Amino acid sequence: MEHPGTFVTTPTEGPRVIELTQGQEMVLATEDGRPLTRIRLGIGWDKNPTAGAIGTGAPDIDLDATAVQFASGQLFDIAFYNNLKTRDGSVEHLGDNLTGRGDGDDEALVVDLPRVHGPVDTIVLLVSSYQGHTLEWINNAYCRLVDEDEVEVARYTLTGGVPHTGLALAAITRDGDRWKLRAIGEGIAVKVPTESIEALRPFL
Q1: What is each CA distance from 199 to 34, 47, 98, 189, in whole angstroms?
Q2: What phi and psi values does residue 189 have, to the nearest 5 degrees?
Q3: Are 63 and 43 in contact (CB under 8 A)?
Q4: For the TerD domain, which residue ranges apply (predicted)?
């Protein structure tokens, strides 16, 4: 299994940077221990101008951010470009970007943690390539978590090509009255978010 990057957590004060590697966890809480209530998952990417056959140029790459809710291992709901909000209202997709052009986050999902339906215990976050390009076709790809105060609390950066059409980024899991983030960072053979369910089960 490839490990193409790391999550980096940066405190708001002080120079220390903590890298959260695959399989490790972080509690979704403020520095003084209060549980985070609303987080945003932002992803960004640029096309790799050298990808593809010589002389053809690289096409625009359409990556899609998706959040999949599970309850005791069973699918509960999914938020993605064709279903912008889960039926419990806790996860909202903020709109589809077809090219990755422009600065800042190209796509984003907002998760209102207190609104997550009681039986839901895991939310898996992923990106996938609708057109079937592998993630070797992109540059400068990242995923970041931002809290309700717009403070970035974690970032995942792709540091190498991933020969898959999808990437399981992280799982948010319920832990009593709090939630934890577990870094995954593994490629999966997924193009369409609704076909991701079985590919995500190993990460529950």
Answers
A1: 33, 25, 24, 7
A2: -90, 80
A3: yes
A4: 18-190
What H or E segment, with its residue span, contains residue 199? helix 197-200
pTM of model > 0.85: no
pLDDT: is 14 or 143 the higher one? 143
pLDDT at 14 over 70: no
On the question of pLDDT at 32 being above 50, the answer is: yes
Contact 147, 77 (CB under 8 A): no
Tokens representing residue 192 in the block? 């369409």
Q: What is the pLDDT of residues 68-108, one digit of tens each?
A: 999 999 999 999 999 999 999 999 999 765 444 445 788 89
DSSP helix/strand/coil, 30:
coil
Nearest to 173 by CA among 135, 127, 123: 123
State how far the Cα of 172 lies from the Cα of 183, in Å rounded to an integer: 9
**What is the distance of C-alpha 160 from the center of its chain?**
17
- Residue tagged 């709901």 (tokens): 77
Q: Specify the 3-state DSSP secondary structure of 177.
A: coil
Kindly list the structural domains of the chain, giving each domain's residue range(s) and its CATH number in brackets, ordered by start. Answer: 5-203 (2.60.60.30)
From CA 125, how far away is CA 104, in angstroms rounded?
19
* Cα–Cα distance measured from residue 18 to residue 11, given in angstroms and rounded to the nearest whole number: 8
